[in-house]
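Researcher: Can you fold this with pyridoxal-5'-phosphate in place?
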Amino acid sequence: MTMDYAKYLAGRANWIKGSALAEVMKKASELQKKGMKLVSLAAGDPDPDLIPRKVLGEIAKEILQNQPKSVMYTPANGIPELREEIAAFLKKHDNLEVSPENIVLSIGGTGALDLLGRVLIDPGDVIITENPSYINTLLAFEQLGAKIEGVSVDNDGMRVDLLEEKIKELKTKGQKIKFIYTIPTGQNPMGVTMSMDRRKALFELASKYDLLIIEDTAYNAMRYEGGDIVPLKALDNEGRVIVAGTFSKVLGTGFRVGWIIAEGDILKKVLMQKQPIDFCAPAISQYIALEYLRRGYFEKYHLNGALLGYKEKRDLMLKTLEENLPDAKFTKPIAGMFVMLFLPEEADGMAFASKLMEKERVVVVPGKPFYTDDSGKNAIRLNFSRPSKEDIPVGIEKLAKLYKEKFGE
Ligand SMILES: *Cc1c(COP(=O)(O)O)cnc(C)c1O
């Protein structure tokens, strides 16, 4: 006997869609289970071996033994000491002036974006994003009934010159635009970083058309160049930019500590919404993040440690791509963890990724699912943060071999 559960589902469950990437990952894990050794350029996380796990372990032990609050609920907005440390951290590294009162600690950046979506999105609202954009955020907003409209991206980030046309076009159609969601630094999946001129222009347009901006700063601590670039929030003299941040790319994705920067009614509703959903971000992780920042470990182990390792891996990936596919088009990230490679115009990235896995045992992520329209069929997302320095050239060389077989030199 099997129950027909579908009839019990809420109507809005129709808006819940799985990620098109699940298929790729499932197939990869099936092959691995069969004992096949795969080279993966498909990850979306930092390198656990570049994260100072030993040091974090020592902090964790100390905290669990000495801080009883670490095993309890924290206030809904998080422990005040960490909010103060984060405010100081943002001032120092992002040139951003925020009050600890405006920071709400969340369950990762994902929790931050979900909370913001819940507080801001009505079914049918239009959200403008980069095209392509981070697939999880697109799914989270769509689950709330949002319609996504994308604006193309080039090497300098969102094509803000196309944004105004898009806003006008949507307004003419009587659509309600709620906010613009952007990942200006180290964009996922493109790997590009928005120039300062574009940032200023984006802010001015949002102001002109009275739109909010949600700035996803997931990769702000993963900058290899472009030291003069500041977050959109630092340009915001109107309270128009809401930030979703995270320590996931620094401490590791397992800690689940992120934050929202907001004010006024948005802040108030986020806090009310948060309590019944998850109470608070994990207390143990909050205390670990606190000690990590207090002891200067961000500078010692991230800026002067892990980050150099990621930079080295990025350089290696770009060098191997340039040597093996000199005529191919790919992005050259100055921040983040990804390179987007473009196959020839008419090629099918999904089919290429499948073939590459079967034939060469290299896993990559097709770019298509990140796109908000039918473009990006030929895009392939490559991750350089997670694979080893041995695997990067091996993976790229094998990819290049298949590329040449299929599309010529
Ligand atoms: C990794 C990531 C996040 C946040 O992930 P969490 O682990 O939930 O903090 C948010 N946005 C983008 C673009 C990301 O790549």
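Model: Folded with pyridoxal-5'-phosphate in place. The mean pLDDT is 96.
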